[in-house]
Design a protein that fits this description.
- This protein is mainly alpha-helical.
- It is built from 3 helices and no strands.
- 80% of the residues lie in helices and 0% in strands.
- Helix 1 (3-9) packs across helix 3 (34-58) and helix 2 runs antiparallel to helix 3 (34-58).
- The protein is elongated.
Length: 59
């Protein structure tokens, strides 16, 4: 999935995504399984798209 397609479908804010990322790391105890790593990577891509969207909106 490309970052652009995530941005188009994303309705979560960067703040919400950041909280989900933090919660994932907390639940994992600092060591991610393969499944958690995949979830983390998707969340980070979505978070980056949300940040870009918020910067563009602010401009």
């Amino acid at each position: 999935m490309s970052p652009d397609s995530v941005a188009l479908g994303s309705v979560r804010s960067a703040s919400e995504l950041n909280e989900r990322i933090r919660a994932l790391w907390t639940r994992a105890g600092g060591s991610l399984t393969a499944q958690e790593r995949a979830e983390y990577e998707l969340l980070v891509v979505e978070w980056a798209a949300a940040i870009r969207g918020e910067v563009i909106e602010a401009a």
